[in-house]
Amino acid sequence: AHNKDEFPPAHTAEHLLNQTMGRMFGCERSRNMHIERKKSKINFLLTREPSADEIAAIERKINDLIAEDLVVSYEFVDRNHIPDGVKLDKLPQDASETLRLVRIGDYDICPCIGTHVQSTKEIRNFRITSTSYTDGDFRIVFKVAE
Description:
Blueprint: H1 8-25, E1 32-34, E2 40-45, H2 52-67, E3 72-78, E4 98-104, E5 108-111, E6 126-134, E7 137-144
């Protein structure tokens, strides 16, 4: 059971952002995020603060993925049949033996029980409204269009 009522476009954008940050900066998926309809924030551990050009490139990449209209799909697997590259280190200890994997096209796959859009085009637009960097903690605040 899932105890949060997330805004599906923002939650799906969070998946895209996690994958994009990993690809661009080699960081792990965020452990700290707050996803809401009006604004969302997510933190990444980085060794340096991204430049303004890099922040613009992050935003551009997410909007390119939205425009690609990638299908969001689900599959249920047991822990013994996890595809290569899917990490389980962020699952709660009480997670079941059967896991739901969320795929966004060929771009991202991860275990998740949250709500998502059916395709990335439903996100419509992604905008980074602010960023901050303190002691290795890089925060991105973002909005998605409704």
